[in-house]
């Protein structure tokens, strides 16, 4: 089971962070060339990220580069650096339509071919940050076999919607739309950045909501959020114990040729057994909640 709970952003211009970030062990690390990088640092950041991608310290971790959109003066140069540097995933911000992804895909294939990287090996994800992006989420998510994920980017999205971040009501439709698009396309879904790095309670409340909705994980901005997120996503010992009993009861029922059965008065059928197997797999991959 490939876990993608935490995708840690870091400004591509920050050489101190680039040289230490791998120690925090997020599931994926995201070098940002877009909004975390000042205009006059764009070129320097691109070179730093190109070198960081090839450093042996990053060889065991999934790497993502958030490029600038292709209609900016930086987008294509960013893409060259990301693909030639060997990024596993390119994240396209401010994706409004499937055409944005298709244009990116064509450029990636050209660069892979030119630099001798296997054509098709660079994966893609799209961040939707506007009403158009959210409304087009299904066509964006299904736009390319390279797509591995779709993310909701809350800050630009609430601006486009002429509102602001609040208790989550303002994101409810967008979260559901992005999540459904991901499940239609069979790719991963990532929730928004939580910006107050000192508010653990607020962060955990948001994580509880998005975990129950079904998101694979979240974009993060600070290493202190990683452990909190991973722990909240791990199943509890009771969940695992119950899942084991469900699977054992289902296996016994199958040997005896029975279909639906009951365990402690609760119906056990195929979806419930599948869920139980998933809980066990996820405990094997992430451990149990502390
Ligand atoms: C709307 C958007 O587009 S969001 C996406 C773009 N934004 C970003 O990439 C922001 C990334 N995050 C950051 O820059 C920072 O975490 C901030 C500015 C939010 C907070 O900074 P600080 O208050 O200094 O964080 P904090 O005190 O927790 O830092 C502790 C250590 O972790 C490091 N650190 C902090 N954030 C990160 C990060 N995202 N990646 C790697 N290392 C980090 C710091 O360098 C510091 O290291 P040190 O102890 O060796 O000096
Ligand atoms: O992509 C993200 O998660 C962060 C971002 O740009 C936004 O919220 O506007
Ligand atoms: Mg944004």
TrEMBL record:
List each copy of the HpcH/HpaI aldolase/citrate lyase domain by range. Answer: 5-223
Would you indicate the residue range of the signal peptide? none
* Catalytic reaction annotation: citrate = oxaloacetate + acetate; (3S)-citryl-CoA = oxaloacetate + acetyl-CoA
Concerning Gene3D superfamilies, the annotation shows: Phosphoenolpyruvate-binding domains (3.20.20.60)
The record ties this protein, via Pfam families, to: HpcH_HpaI
GO cellular component terms, alphabetically, are:
ATP-independent citrate lyase complex; cytoplasm
- Report the cofactors: Mg(2+)
**Cited InterPro entries:** Aldolase/citrate-lyase_domain (IPR005000), Citrate_lyase_beta/mcl1/mcl2 (IPR011206), Citrate_lyase_beta_bac (IPR006475), Pyrv/PenolPyrv_kinase-like_dom (IPR015813), Pyrv_kinase-like_dom_sf (IPR040442)
Query: What is known about its subunit structure?
Result: Oligomer with a subunit composition of (alpha,beta,gamma)6.
Can you say what this protein is called?
A: Citrate lyase subunit beta
Q: Which organism is it from?
A: Albidiferax ferrireducens (strain ATCC BAA-621 / DSM 15236 / T118) (Rhodoferax ferrireducens)
